[in-house]
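Board notes, transcribed. Complex of a protein with ribulose-5-phosphate.
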Amino acid sequence: MSQDELKQAVARAAIDYVVDGAIIGVGTGSTANFFIDELGKIKDRIKGAVASSDATAARLKSHGIAVFDLNDVSSILVYIDGADEITAQGAMIKGGGAALTREKIVSSAADKFVCIADGSKLVDTLGKFPLPVEVIPMAQAVVSRKLAALGGEPRLRLKDGRPLLTDNGCVIIDLAGLTIADAVQLETEINQIVGVVTVGLFARRGADIALLGTADGVKKLTF
Ligand code: 5RP
């Protein structure tokens, strides 16, 4: 099976976690896109969705799914999103699609986080995937120095030769070369750096369930 077929399989499996009549929190990225396409097929069963990025909002709307502002929603029963890496304990690196801050906000409002990913995202230790950190643009240099002091190699994420700007008008610094032994501690430490908006470690509040696509079918991990 191709990686896309594995992503499609977990996207389909995630439909089982959609609660009828509810507003669903929806993540960002290629796996989340497959999920949105599946959600479009059952859109009459749900009230709508809260999106974690402008791109996700646009794709939801293209399927005729109502998109709600988080401020107008009192509860989200389930949030469904991909990950760049996930451990067997449910801690994740996210932000490969630069949507980490809104992903963390929407998932923090949800009762349940269902991570959908192809099996290659399951790792023993987080850090091989460069850790995304969203930063206020004026703080880019000072935050980069502080991130370098943690032992990683900070790289400003570029798009078309210019700093990539997130939906929040911020930049992304990708911190390469880390071996993250204590993800909760590192998440707390990086979030304390002035100028950091969000670090793409989802360990303090990790996934509750992971659906991982493998050649042998969709494997479910519960945390
Ligand atoms: C976006 C994310 C994505 O969930 C993560 O990058 C995984 O993406 P994909 O499903 O394309 O592999 O965190 O900010």
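The two ends are 27 Å apart (CA to CA). The pocket of ribulose-5-phosphate is lined by residues 27-31, 81-84, 94-100, 103 (CB under 6 Å).
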